[in-house]
Amino acid sequence: MVISSTLTVRLSEQTKSQVTTxxxxxxxxxxxxxxxxxxxxxxxxxxxxxQGLADVQAGRFTSxxxxxxxxxxxxxxxxxxx
Length: 82
Fold this sequence. Notes:
Layout: H1 13-21, H2 27-57, H3 64-81
């Protein structure tokens, strides 16, 4: 059994009305699913940023200048292939 707790939120009347029109689910269920999805996405973003910072600190990165030089070379190669 999942232990849960209560969280009160304020919504505009329009949003509350829209949530109410969604078929087959309670407002509580929809709010819980929306919050869980948001938290999951935000945590993934934070983890990716932390990993990126660790990569930079460890020297595992390519400078913007090097990337742009490579992109320019690929564009030039495509142009020359025509």
